[in-house]
Amino acid sequence: MISFNVLVSICLLYVLGLFAVAYAAERWAETGRFAILRSPLIYTLSISVYCTAWTFYGAVGSAARNGLEFVAIYLGPTLVFVGWWWLLHKLVRIGRVQRITSIADLLSSRYGKSGGLAVLVTVLAVVGTTPYIALQLQSMTLSFAVFTTATGAPAPSPTVTAFYVAAGLAVFTIIFGTRNLDANERHHGVVTAIAVEAVVKLAALLSVGIFVVWGVASGPADIFARMDPELLQSSQVFNTRWLTLNFLSACAIICLPRMFQVIVVENANERHLATASWAFPLYLFLMSLFVLPIAIAGQSILAPDANPDLFVLTVPLDQGQQTLATLAFLGGFSSATSMVIVASIALSTMMSNHIVLPLWLRMNASRNPASDDVRDLLLRSRRLSIAVVVALGYVYFQFNGGTGALASIGLIAFLGVAQVLPALLGGLFWHSATRPAAIASICTGFFIWAYTLFIPSFGGAALMGPETLQSGPFGILWLAPQNLLGVGITDPLVHAVFWSLGLNTLVFISVSLLTTPSAIERLQSVQFINVFGQVSPRRGITRNTTIEDLLVLAQRILGREEAMTLFKAQARHQGKDSPLPDATNELIATLEREIAGSVGAAAAHAMMAQVTGGAEISFEDMIAVADETAQIMEYSARLETQSKELEQAAVQLRNANAKLTELGAQKDTFLSQVSHELRTPMTSIRTFSEILQDGDTLDPEQLNHFATIIHSESIRLTRLLDDILDLSFMENGRVQLNLETVPLHSIIDRALATTQAQANELGAVIRRNTTAEQVTLYTDPDRLSQVLINLVTNALKHCGTTPPEVSVLSGLHMGKLVITVADNGKGISEDDIDLIFEKFSKLSKKFTSGSAGLGLPISREIVKNLGGTLVYAGSSKGAVFRITLPLQAAETPVSA
Amino acid sequence: MHERVLLIEDEPHIVEALSFLLTREGLSVSTHADGSNAAETAARLTPDLVILDVMLPGKSGFDILNEIRGTEGMADTPVLMLTAKGQSRDRAAAQAAGASMFMTKPFSNREIVANIKALLE
């Protein structure tokens, strides 16, 4: 008896052997030795990953239960390989031309590089594959258990076995599935190891079969004589279920992620497919050859309660054939491991390419995606994804292990992934298929699959109660998961296939008809559907190009009107009556030139190449397109910047111009006012001097009077000119200030001394608070006293009261020096307050002594230049002008 | 009989100078130094000639001219306008308002006397 430990050791040795094969294959692939590694044989054998533990063990079980039903599982793929070879060829060609890495990538690429679709398909694939991986774990656990039971050793916990198997598979896959990042996602080492496993499982099954037929029985005739007549009767070949199974397994060979991986992605040479098209059906035939005999033998020699799913193991064990049983065990082990390895590689590619990488790029938009970061990230995410996929399978096994026959889980998974079929076939053959349709149809199918088959398969679990399963949600009978609309399809699988794929296809077709493909979808559809028309448009193959395709492209780029004009002109040139010309080489060349004007030559060439029959876009083409785009974008960014700058400059110029215009108007007004003010004294001077010139006999008193007038008007003129210059300087901030530290009272002293004579003449009373004047100021004393003189003179002259009373009061307020000059007159009316500081205003003229109305404006400018303010703060008791000067220029009171 | 001239001007020195000149020429001169009431003074005095400054405190010379022209019996009274601004805009405005003549300050004594005599003839 082979002990459990020996069995484990054999498994380990076997896995080590696989390691060696994979490693050697990669080395040999690099060095180019052993041409057999690149032969179609390896490719064909790798496709046998289709035969998982389900097929290895389950087919016998299925045969024992339902007779010939198992044949459908082999017949479906055989029909595809023999009859639909051209479909596979198209898939392989598209995969190579478009550098497709997975079935999610294929659909996303076909439907306008849709990220959402890729994610959807990835999720579907993961959900559909997880039970399948669980199935492999279960079969391995069962086979381990069978061996241990047979040896009488204590049975290891299935959970523990499954855990170690899962972990081992994950490690193997990570090591060989992510050793390097190949743009084509090909894994020579893994594929070779899978091929070796294919040989092992075939050898195992054939050996057991031969043993059964010629060892247990005495030949084929004997074994079939032992057959329970019930077996064939119970099987109703060619019924609906059987046809459905055929159909499902045919779908599976195209849609299963792992099948897509080995058939399309791992394909190194299209010609290998030609070999596979007969060799793989042959392999399937050999695999199925002894299924029935083994089933018959199992039923005839084993106890009636023996699990038929394990006949392949239990029959040799029962007959004491340890070596044969071990070989059978290794065959099952190979089937399970190869499936898990390839499936997890395929799923990890999808998960990292369509989920992890886009997320990372979005979060690190600024990083250079060509850096090593991404490479590391991809490798890490691949490894993690593999672990996650295997772990998911393990978790599923933990929860549902042992429920249901192996075959039913496999069929559920088949139907799950088959939901991409309508979108896939539509994408390969139908130009009008659109992305929304693909997404809607897959979602619809996925939902119905989950509702009618997947969730009920484990008794509804937490998602559906038993009463929901029986009589529909909320008792709505026609929504019962396994009897939708009450159409009365009794077989749950057929029911689910009918509804999910039926509605899926219906949705796909209707939505496609209702929506319009985008430009890129249109381009990709041509690329996919016409994938075999790969000849350069330069050499004149236009047979795959319709004029409508060209028109659509031209309209997208040139605009509707212009494209139509161009096409009409070309049609006339070709001498055609219709508005559409023939798609001649000349037309294509012309169109490419026109388009190049809009999008650049490289992009135009790439687009035309795509439309005119899918010529492969070279890497150089794409780089050139990218370069042109970058240049165009840079150029347009530069133009935008320049245009913004120009706009700003224009605004600045407009503002400057408005300011200049305003300043010009102000200057005109000012000059006109100055002219008026100068002409008045000049008139007096001229008139009186002419009177004097006349030499009339004027009495001396008159003579003196006239001379005095001339004199005073001359002084007035001079002062006016001084004021104007003064004001102009101050307004431009160019006034020369002679700053020094002086006591405030000395400034007030000086100002009052100047106005003393006038005050005396009017009998005026002047008040001041000398105590508060004991402050030293850092200021221009001449200028400040000029302001005070002006204010005091105004007060004396205009207050209109007799006798005038003027107070010059100083004080500190809010940290500032405040000097007020107030009189006891009527003050200035509110309407006039705004005008008194205006140059040459009648009011300022009125309130300013002896000048042309520049006194107050000048005073205000002086105070401003000294860092303070001069405001009118009049009250009903008289005019009050207040000077406020900052204290930082004023210092603390001088101690007496 | 002395012809009577009304001088409406606010600048005292100019009033004094023109009064001296015209009196010396044998004219009778009345003066009015303010913009307000100038037209009433003119209506009351009905002078043979009015000399009118454009810039007056209280009221513009053009407004006063309009009022004078609206006064009964003064529609044809010669009015000589004086301005210190010397802009053609003022000249045009004065003519539009019906001024008989327009002179810019400062003026020549001989010229203004000659113009006044011509207006009075």
UniProtKB/TrEMBL annotation, chain A:
PROSITE patterns named among the record's database cross-references: HIS_KIN (PS50109), NA_SOLUT_SYMP_3 (PS50283)
GO cellular component terms listed in the entry, alphabetical order: membrane
Catalytic activity: ATP + protein L-histidine = ADP + protein N-phospho-L-histidine
Histidine kinase domain sequence ranges: 673-889
Molecular function (Gene Ontology), one example: transmembrane transporter activity
Location of the protein in the cell: Membrane
InterPro entries: HATPase_C_sf, HATPase_dom, His_kinase_dom, HisK_dim/P_dom, HisK_dim/P_sf, Na/Glc_symporter_sf, Na/solute_symporter, Sensor_HK_Regulatory
Coiled-coil features, chain-numbered ranges: 632-666
EC number: 2.7.13.3
Main location, first listed in the record: membrane
Family annotation (Pfam families): HATPase_c, HisKA
Signal sequence, start to end: none
TM stretches of this protein: 6-25, 37-59, 71-88, 117-135, 155-178, 190-217, 237-257, 278-302, 339-361, 382-399, 405-430, 437-459
Record key words, sorted: Coiled coil, Kinase, Membrane, Phosphoprotein, Transferase, Transmembrane, Transmembrane helix, Two-component regulatory system
Top EC category: transferase
Membrane topology value: Multi-pass membrane protein
Domain of life: Bacteria
Membership in a protein family: Belongs to the sodium:solute symporter (SSF) (TC 2.A.21) family.
UniProt xrefs under PANTHER family: SENSOR HISTIDINE KINASE RCSC (PTHR43711:SF26), TWO-COMPONENT HISTIDINE KINASE (PTHR43711)
Name of protein: histidine kinase
Source species of the chain: Neptunicoccus cionae
TrEMBL record, chain B:
Gene Ontology BP terms: phosphorelay signal transduction system
Keywords recorded for this protein, A-Z: DNA-binding, Phosphoprotein, Transcription, Transcription regulation, Two-component regulatory system
Pfam families the record matches: Response_reg
A GO term, aspect molecular function: DNA binding
Chain positions with 4-aspartylphosphate modification: D53
Domain of life: Bacteria
Domain called Response regulatory: residue spans: 4-120
Name the UniProt record assigns to this protein: Response regulator
Protein source organism: Neptunicoccus cionae
